[in-house]
Amino acid sequence: MITISPIGTGEPSGRIPPTSSENPMKRFFVPAAVVLAGAAFAGAGHAACPTDEQVKAVADAYIAGKQLAPPEGLSAEDTLCGRDKLLRMLGGHYGRVVGYKAGLTNPAAQKLVNYPQPVRGVLFERMLKHDGEDVSLSAPGIMFEADLIVEVKDAAINEAKTPLEALRSIRAVYPFIELPRGVFNAPPAKLGGLNLLYHNVAAFSGVLGKPVTVEATQQGLDSLANMTVMLMDGTGATLDSAKGAALMENPINAVLWLAADLKKSGGALKAGDLLSLGTLSRIHPAKPGGSARVRYEGLPGNPEVSVRFVDNQ
After folding, report:
1. What pTM was estimated for this model as a whole?
2. Are 279 and 145 in contact (CB under 8 A)?
Protein backbone atom coordinates (compact mmCIF):
# COMPACT_ATOMS: atom_id res chain seq x y z
CA MET A 1 0.00 0.00 0.00
CA ILE A 2 1.29 3.43 -0.91
CA THR A 3 1.44 5.97 1.88
CA ILE A 4 0.61 9.52 0.86
CA SER A 5 2.93 12.10 2.39
CA PRO A 6 3.24 15.80 1.58
CA ILE A 7 5.80 17.18 -0.86
CA GLY A 8 7.71 19.93 0.96
CA THR A 9 7.83 22.77 -1.51
CA GLY A 10 9.88 24.74 1.00
CA GLU A 11 12.64 22.15 1.30
CA PRO A 12 15.82 22.28 -0.78
CA SER A 13 15.31 20.10 -3.82
CA GLY A 14 18.95 19.11 -4.17
CA ARG A 15 21.20 19.21 -7.19
CA ILE A 16 22.24 16.52 -9.63
CA PRO A 17 25.95 17.24 -10.19
CA PRO A 18 27.54 16.68 -13.57
CA THR A 19 29.71 13.60 -14.00
CA SER A 20 32.55 15.95 -15.01
CA SER A 21 33.38 19.41 -14.75
CA GLU A 22 12.64 22.89 -38.64
CA ASN A 23 10.72 24.55 -36.70
CA PRO A 24 8.87 24.41 -33.41
CA MET A 25 7.56 20.96 -32.53
CA LYS A 26 4.91 19.89 -34.98
CA ARG A 27 3.34 17.08 -32.98
CA PHE A 28 3.00 15.69 -29.50
CA PHE A 29 2.61 11.94 -29.85
CA VAL A 30 1.40 9.51 -27.22
CA PRO A 31 2.00 5.96 -28.49
CA ALA A 32 -0.71 3.34 -28.80
CA ALA A 33 -1.09 1.12 -25.77
CA VAL A 34 1.23 -1.83 -25.59
CA VAL A 35 -0.14 -2.93 -22.23
CA LEU A 36 -3.60 -1.99 -20.95
CA ALA A 37 -3.67 -1.86 -17.19
CA GLY A 38 -7.44 -2.01 -16.83
CA ALA A 39 -10.09 0.58 -16.22
CA ALA A 40 -8.83 2.91 -13.53
CA PHE A 41 -11.75 5.27 -13.85
CA ALA A 42 -15.32 4.01 -13.93
CA GLY A 43 -18.09 6.10 -15.39
CA ALA A 44 -18.11 8.95 -17.83
CA GLY A 45 -16.91 11.73 -15.56
CA HIS A 46 -16.05 12.95 -12.10
CA ALA A 47 -17.18 15.95 -10.14
CA ALA A 48 -14.54 15.71 -7.44
CA CYS A 49 -10.87 15.04 -6.87
CA PRO A 50 -9.91 11.52 -7.99
CA THR A 51 -9.93 9.10 -5.09
CA ASP A 52 -6.77 7.66 -3.59
CA GLU A 53 -7.59 4.33 -5.25
CA GLN A 54 -7.97 5.94 -8.68
CA VAL A 55 -4.73 7.85 -8.34
CA LYS A 56 -2.94 4.75 -7.06
CA ALA A 57 -3.95 2.96 -10.27
CA VAL A 58 -2.27 5.73 -12.26
CA ALA A 59 0.83 5.62 -10.02
CA ASP A 60 1.08 1.84 -10.37
CA ALA A 61 0.84 2.10 -14.18
CA TYR A 62 3.40 4.93 -14.19
CA ILE A 63 5.92 2.86 -12.24
CA ALA A 64 5.17 -0.52 -13.86
CA GLY A 65 5.39 0.81 -17.41
CA LYS A 66 1.75 0.17 -18.29
CA GLN A 67 -0.87 2.37 -19.88
CA LEU A 68 -4.45 3.32 -19.07
CA ALA A 69 -7.39 4.87 -20.83
CA PRO A 70 -7.46 8.58 -19.90
CA PRO A 71 -10.08 9.74 -17.39
CA GLU A 72 -12.92 11.91 -18.63
CA GLY A 73 -14.73 14.84 -17.13
CA LEU A 74 -12.11 16.10 -14.71
CA SER A 75 -12.19 19.83 -14.06
CA ALA A 76 -9.01 21.87 -13.81
CA GLU A 77 -9.35 21.87 -10.03
CA ASP A 78 -9.88 18.11 -9.90
CA THR A 79 -6.90 17.58 -12.19
CA LEU A 80 -4.58 19.58 -9.93
CA CYS A 81 -5.84 17.67 -6.90
CA GLY A 82 -5.22 14.33 -8.62
CA ARG A 83 -1.79 15.43 -9.85
CA ASP A 84 -0.70 16.45 -6.36
CA LYS A 85 -1.77 13.06 -4.98
CA LEU A 86 0.08 11.32 -7.81
CA LEU A 87 3.30 13.26 -7.18
CA ARG A 88 3.29 12.29 -3.52
CA MET A 89 2.90 8.65 -4.49
CA LEU A 90 5.62 8.77 -7.15
CA GLY A 91 8.09 10.34 -4.74
CA GLY A 92 8.32 7.06 -2.82
CA HIS A 93 9.66 5.37 -5.95
CA TYR A 94 11.62 8.08 -7.79
CA GLY A 95 13.19 9.87 -4.82
CA ARG A 96 13.30 13.53 -3.95
CA VAL A 97 12.11 16.36 -6.14
CA VAL A 98 15.05 17.99 -7.94
CA GLY A 99 13.20 20.39 -10.18
CA TYR A 100 10.31 21.05 -12.53
CA LYS A 101 9.25 20.50 -16.11
CA ALA A 102 7.42 22.97 -18.35
CA GLY A 103 5.40 21.34 -21.10
CA LEU A 104 3.42 22.85 -23.99
CA THR A 105 5.78 25.81 -24.14
CA ASN A 106 5.24 26.42 -27.84
CA PRO A 107 2.04 27.16 -29.78
CA ALA A 108 2.33 24.09 -32.02
CA ALA A 109 2.22 21.73 -29.04
CA GLN A 110 -0.67 23.63 -27.46
CA LYS A 111 -2.67 23.40 -30.67
CA LEU A 112 -2.18 19.65 -30.90
CA VAL A 113 -3.69 18.97 -27.50
CA ASN A 114 -6.16 21.88 -27.74
CA TYR A 115 -4.86 23.53 -24.60
CA PRO A 116 -3.97 27.24 -24.57
CA GLN A 117 -1.14 27.40 -22.04
CA PRO A 118 1.92 25.56 -20.65
CA VAL A 119 1.67 22.87 -17.98
CA ARG A 120 4.00 22.06 -15.08
CA GLY A 121 5.39 18.72 -13.97
CA VAL A 122 8.00 17.56 -11.47
CA LEU A 123 11.46 16.08 -12.00
CA PHE A 124 12.49 13.41 -9.49
CA GLU A 125 16.07 12.46 -8.67
CA ARG A 126 15.97 8.93 -10.12
CA MET A 127 14.60 10.12 -13.45
CA LEU A 128 17.86 11.80 -14.49
CA LYS A 129 20.87 10.16 -16.12
CA HIS A 130 24.17 11.53 -17.43
CA ASP A 131 25.63 12.04 -20.88
CA GLY A 132 26.48 8.86 -22.74
CA GLU A 133 24.72 6.48 -20.36
CA ASP A 134 22.87 3.48 -21.72
CA VAL A 135 19.13 3.69 -21.16
CA SER A 136 17.26 0.43 -20.78
CA LEU A 137 13.90 0.41 -22.52
CA SER A 138 12.21 -0.99 -19.44
CA ALA A 139 8.73 0.19 -20.40
CA PRO A 140 6.78 0.41 -23.66
CA GLY A 141 6.27 3.74 -25.33
CA ILE A 142 9.49 5.51 -24.31
CA MET A 143 10.19 8.42 -26.64
CA PHE A 144 13.04 10.92 -27.05
CA GLU A 145 13.22 14.62 -27.84
CA ALA A 146 15.61 17.57 -27.71
CA ASP A 147 15.10 19.67 -24.60
CA LEU A 148 17.01 22.14 -22.43
CA ILE A 149 17.56 22.37 -18.67
CA VAL A 150 18.73 25.31 -16.58
CA GLU A 151 19.87 25.25 -12.96
CA VAL A 152 18.65 27.90 -10.53
CA LYS A 153 21.39 29.88 -8.77
CA ASP A 154 19.38 31.77 -6.16
CA ALA A 155 15.88 32.59 -4.93
CA ALA A 156 15.95 36.02 -6.57
CA ILE A 157 14.63 34.26 -9.65
CA ASN A 158 11.18 34.27 -8.06
CA GLU A 159 11.12 38.08 -8.23
CA ALA A 160 12.44 38.37 -11.79
CA LYS A 161 10.23 40.40 -14.10
CA THR A 162 12.24 40.15 -17.34
CA PRO A 163 14.18 37.35 -19.05
CA LEU A 164 17.48 39.14 -18.37
CA GLU A 165 16.68 39.39 -14.66
CA ALA A 166 15.86 35.67 -14.64
CA LEU A 167 19.08 34.82 -16.47
CA ARG A 168 21.05 36.51 -13.67
CA SER A 169 19.65 33.85 -11.32
CA ILE A 170 20.65 30.93 -13.55
CA ARG A 171 23.83 29.05 -12.56
CA ALA A 172 24.17 26.89 -15.67
CA VAL A 173 22.49 25.60 -18.82
CA TYR A 174 22.46 21.86 -19.53
CA PRO A 175 21.96 20.06 -22.84
CA PHE A 176 19.13 17.61 -22.20
CA ILE A 177 17.51 14.72 -24.03
CA GLU A 178 14.15 14.10 -22.47
CA LEU A 179 12.68 10.59 -22.52
CA PRO A 180 8.94 11.04 -21.98
CA ARG A 181 6.43 8.22 -21.71
CA GLY A 182 2.65 8.63 -21.71
CA VAL A 183 0.68 6.70 -19.10
CA PHE A 184 -2.64 7.61 -20.68
CA ASN A 185 -3.16 5.93 -24.04
CA ALA A 186 -4.81 8.46 -26.34
CA PRO A 187 -4.09 10.58 -29.42
CA PRO A 188 -3.08 14.15 -28.57
CA ALA A 189 -6.45 15.78 -29.23
CA LYS A 190 -8.26 13.30 -26.99
CA LEU A 191 -5.56 13.34 -24.33
CA GLY A 192 -5.88 17.09 -23.79
CA GLY A 193 -3.84 19.42 -21.64
CA LEU A 194 -5.51 18.48 -18.36
CA ASN A 195 -4.73 14.77 -18.66
CA LEU A 196 -1.17 15.64 -19.66
CA LEU A 197 -0.97 17.76 -16.52
CA TYR A 198 -2.53 15.00 -14.40
CA HIS A 199 0.16 12.42 -15.19
CA ASN A 200 3.09 14.74 -14.57
CA VAL A 201 3.43 15.98 -18.15
CA ALA A 202 4.65 12.51 -19.21
CA ALA A 203 7.94 12.96 -17.32
CA PHE A 204 9.74 9.61 -17.22
CA SER A 205 13.50 10.03 -17.66
CA GLY A 206 16.14 12.14 -19.35
CA VAL A 207 19.87 12.51 -20.01
CA LEU A 208 21.82 15.57 -18.80
CA GLY A 209 24.84 16.88 -20.64
CA LYS A 210 27.67 18.87 -19.07
CA PRO A 211 26.83 22.32 -17.71
CA VAL A 212 27.43 25.41 -19.81
CA THR A 213 27.72 28.96 -18.51
CA VAL A 214 25.75 31.57 -20.42
CA GLU A 215 26.67 35.15 -19.49
CA ALA A 216 23.85 37.13 -17.89
CA THR A 217 23.98 39.83 -20.55
CA GLN A 218 21.71 40.76 -23.43
CA GLN A 219 24.13 38.96 -25.73
CA GLY A 220 23.93 35.82 -23.62
CA LEU A 221 20.14 36.02 -23.54
CA ASP A 222 20.00 36.46 -27.30
CA SER A 223 22.24 33.42 -27.78
CA LEU A 224 19.59 31.24 -26.17
CA ALA A 225 16.93 32.46 -28.59
CA ASN A 226 19.22 32.32 -31.62
CA MET A 227 20.92 28.97 -30.99
CA THR A 228 20.18 26.13 -33.42
CA VAL A 229 19.26 22.89 -31.70
CA MET A 230 19.86 19.80 -33.82
CA LEU A 231 18.54 16.35 -32.94
CA MET A 232 20.47 13.56 -34.68
CA ASP A 233 20.29 9.79 -34.82
CA GLY A 234 23.19 7.40 -34.29
CA THR A 235 24.46 7.86 -37.85
CA GLY A 236 24.65 11.63 -37.46
CA ALA A 237 21.64 12.23 -39.70
CA THR A 238 19.57 15.21 -38.59
CA LEU A 239 16.09 14.28 -37.41
CA ASP A 240 14.97 17.77 -36.43
CA SER A 241 16.31 21.29 -36.10
CA ALA A 242 14.86 24.32 -34.32
CA LYS A 243 15.85 27.70 -32.94
CA GLY A 244 15.80 28.34 -29.22
CA ALA A 245 13.09 30.91 -29.92
CA ALA A 246 10.69 27.98 -30.48
CA LEU A 247 10.29 28.00 -26.68
CA MET A 248 8.13 31.04 -25.92
CA GLU A 249 10.40 33.25 -28.10
CA ASN A 250 13.25 32.64 -25.63
CA PRO A 251 13.75 29.61 -23.34
CA ILE A 252 14.14 31.93 -20.35
CA ASN A 253 10.51 32.95 -20.78
CA ALA A 254 9.67 29.37 -19.80
CA VAL A 255 11.67 29.94 -16.61
CA LEU A 256 9.57 33.00 -15.82
CA TRP A 257 6.41 31.01 -16.48
CA LEU A 258 7.51 28.18 -14.17
CA ALA A 259 8.32 30.61 -11.36
CA ALA A 260 4.93 32.31 -11.72
CA ASP A 261 2.99 29.05 -11.94
CA LEU A 262 4.73 27.61 -8.89
CA LYS A 263 4.01 30.80 -6.95
CA LYS A 264 0.28 30.38 -7.66
CA SER A 265 0.33 27.12 -5.67
CA GLY A 266 2.34 28.60 -2.80
CA GLY A 267 5.74 27.29 -3.92
CA ALA A 268 8.97 28.92 -4.99
CA LEU A 269 12.08 28.04 -6.97
CA LYS A 270 15.25 27.38 -4.96
CA ALA A 271 18.98 27.25 -5.57
CA GLY A 272 19.80 23.93 -7.22
CA ASP A 273 16.41 23.40 -8.86
CA LEU A 274 16.67 21.96 -12.37
CA LEU A 275 14.14 23.31 -14.85
CA SER A 276 13.26 21.46 -18.05
CA LEU A 277 12.00 24.14 -20.43
CA GLY A 278 10.27 22.23 -23.23
CA THR A 279 10.77 20.32 -26.42
CA LEU A 280 12.87 21.68 -29.28
CA SER A 281 12.05 18.86 -31.67
CA ARG A 282 9.41 16.39 -32.61
CA ILE A 283 9.07 13.37 -30.36
CA HIS A 284 10.56 10.11 -31.68
CA PRO A 285 10.17 6.49 -30.51
CA ALA A 286 13.21 4.99 -28.76
CA LYS A 287 14.28 1.63 -30.21
CA PRO A 288 16.71 -0.99 -28.84
CA GLY A 289 20.15 -0.54 -30.38
CA GLY A 290 19.40 3.02 -31.38
CA SER A 291 20.96 6.23 -30.16
CA ALA A 292 20.43 9.96 -30.30
CA ARG A 293 22.54 13.09 -30.01
CA VAL A 294 21.63 16.75 -29.63
CA ARG A 295 23.88 19.70 -30.48
CA TYR A 296 23.29 23.30 -29.39
CA GLU A 297 25.01 25.46 -31.99
CA GLY A 298 25.47 29.00 -30.77
CA LEU A 299 25.95 28.24 -27.09
CA PRO A 300 29.53 28.38 -25.76
CA GLY A 301 31.45 25.42 -27.19
CA ASN A 302 28.46 24.15 -29.20
CA PRO A 303 27.72 21.55 -26.50
CA GLU A 304 26.21 18.13 -27.12
CA VAL A 305 24.48 15.35 -25.20
CA SER A 306 23.92 11.76 -26.29
CA VAL A 307 22.10 8.61 -25.26
CA ARG A 308 22.11 4.92 -26.26
CA PHE A 309 19.06 2.68 -26.04
CA VAL A 310 19.40 -0.96 -25.02
CA ASP A 311 17.00 -3.85 -24.53
CA ASN A 312 15.25 -4.16 -21.19
CA GLN A 313 17.76 -5.66 -18.73
Report:
1. 0.84
2. yes
